[in-house]
């Protein structure tokens, strides 16, 4: 996440009934770990763990935009999309950034809607997959693995893409976008939002996932959204979830996190409801932009719960006869 300098002086900050997800084994590629689990025994949390253990491994060297490590992550995501029936949105999955000097790519897939009219309306579900690379060593470790920031959000989006890619239950079309160069100033999402606006995309809403690897503590909701009072997304989400799934975090408003993650360029370009879902609240994780952001601190059961509770919400929003998410 891109951090404002004044927040560095105060804590740290960021840019910022449930359907069960099917239990298909994680995609096996030459770029990803080989699973020894069968389709019948591979649980959601275990599959999430395998994805996370690849994306946040030392081999990625912190996934800095333009690096060899993030190239490995990009190939992994492409193969994941291909394995589960998510088609390239452009001629290929790769959307080359026009605003970054080194070669860098958003990875963009689409699951076309199955309704002849509603399929022309798009919901974009995204997360950034880059991180900050290598930094000043601590106890001999210089790799900022970026497990929570943002392999967790990336993995959440991949699992949602897997569900819709295989089930094809969506009436509206779903774009799944993994952004590069977020840590350089939201460059990947800025590039894609501008490009899609120029292409006159009929965008309904943008749903972004950021730092979802550890659960909130002492809250009566599972995750919060930035820009809570800017639309009725939380109300609609909780209605479909039949529980208090999405809440309001005062700190998010205090630090204006709405403008600090990849939802914001879509708000600027399209003027549609664009929010980030998050479970980092400044008190439950102490390794932001540090080498300690490791998979060993992630809660894969929590992540599985978040994915399984979010999918039916997105499914209902996608399939509603009229657009329900409205700006306030």
Q: How would you describe this protein?
A:
- With 328 residues, this protein is α/β, with parallel strands linked by helices.
- The chain contains 9 helices and 11 strands.
- The protein has a single domain (5-319), classed as Zn peptidases (Aminopeptidase).
- It is 32% helix and 16% strand.
- Strand 5 and strand 6 form a beta hairpin.
- Helix 2 (44-55) packs across helix 4, helix 4 (147-167) packs across helix 9 and helix 6 (233-241) packs across helix 9.
- The model is unreliable at 1-40 (pLDDT under 50).
CATH overall fold name: Aminopeptidase
- Detail the poorly predicted runs: 1-40
Q: What is the CATH class?
A: Alpha Beta
Please indicate the percent range of residues in DSSP E strands (runs of 2 or more).
Answer: 15-25%
Shape: globular
The CATH superfamily title: Zn peptidases
Largest sheet at a glance? 9 strands, mixed
Give structural attributes.
alpha/beta, Aminopeptidase, 11 strands, 328 residues, two-stranded antiparallel sheet
Task: Lay out the secondary structure.
Layout: H1 5-8, H2 44-55, H3 68-83, E1 87-88, E2 94-96, E3 105-111, E4 122-128, E5 134-138, E6 141-143, H4 147-167, E7 173-179, H5 187-198, E8 203-210, E9 223-225, H6 233-241, E10 246-247, H7 250-254, H8 264-270, E11 274-278, H9 300-319
Helix pairs in contact: 2-4, 2-9, 4-9, 5-8, 6-9
């Amino acid at each position: 996440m891109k951090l404002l300098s004044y927040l560095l002086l105060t804590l740290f900050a960021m840019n910022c009934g449930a359907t069960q997800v099917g239990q298909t084994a994680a995609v096996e590629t030459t770029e990803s770990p080989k699973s020894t689990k069968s389709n019948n025994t591979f649980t959601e949390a275990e599959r999430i763990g395998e994805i996370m253990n690849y994306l946040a491994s030392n081999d990625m060297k912190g996934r800095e935009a333009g690096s060899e490590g993030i190239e490995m992550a990009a190939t992994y995501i492409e193969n994941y999309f291909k394995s589960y029936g998510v088609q390239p949105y452009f001629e290929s999955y790769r959307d080359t950034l026009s605003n970054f000097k080194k070669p860098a790519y958003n990875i963009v897939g689409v699951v076309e809607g199955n309704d002849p009219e509603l399929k022309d309306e798009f919901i974009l579900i995204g997360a950034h997959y880059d991180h900050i690379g290598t930094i000043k060593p601590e106890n001999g470790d210089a790799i900022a693995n970026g497990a929570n920031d943002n392999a967790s959000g990336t993995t959440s989006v991949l699992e949602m893409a897997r569900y819709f890619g295989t089930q094809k239950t969506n009436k509206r079309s779903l774009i799944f976008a993994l952004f590069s160069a977020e840590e350089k100033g939201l460059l990947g999402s800025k590039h894609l939002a501008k490009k899609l606006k120029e292409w006159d995309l009929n965008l309904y809403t943008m749903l972004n996932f950021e730092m979802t690897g550890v659960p909130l503590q002492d809250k009566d909701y599972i995750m919060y959204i930035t820009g809570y009072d800017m639309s009725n997304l939380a109300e609609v989400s909780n209605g479909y979830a039949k529980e208090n799934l999405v809440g309001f975090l005062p700190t998010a408003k205090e630090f204006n996190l709405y403008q600090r993650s990849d939802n914001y360029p879509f708000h600027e370009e399209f003027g549609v409801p664009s929010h980030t879902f998050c479970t980092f609240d400044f008190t439950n994780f102490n390794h932001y932009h540090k080498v300690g952001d490791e998979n060993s601190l992630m809660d894969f059961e929590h992540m599985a719960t978040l994915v399984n509770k979010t999918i039916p919400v997105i499914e209902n929003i996608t399939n509603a006869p009229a657009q329900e998410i409205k700006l306030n």
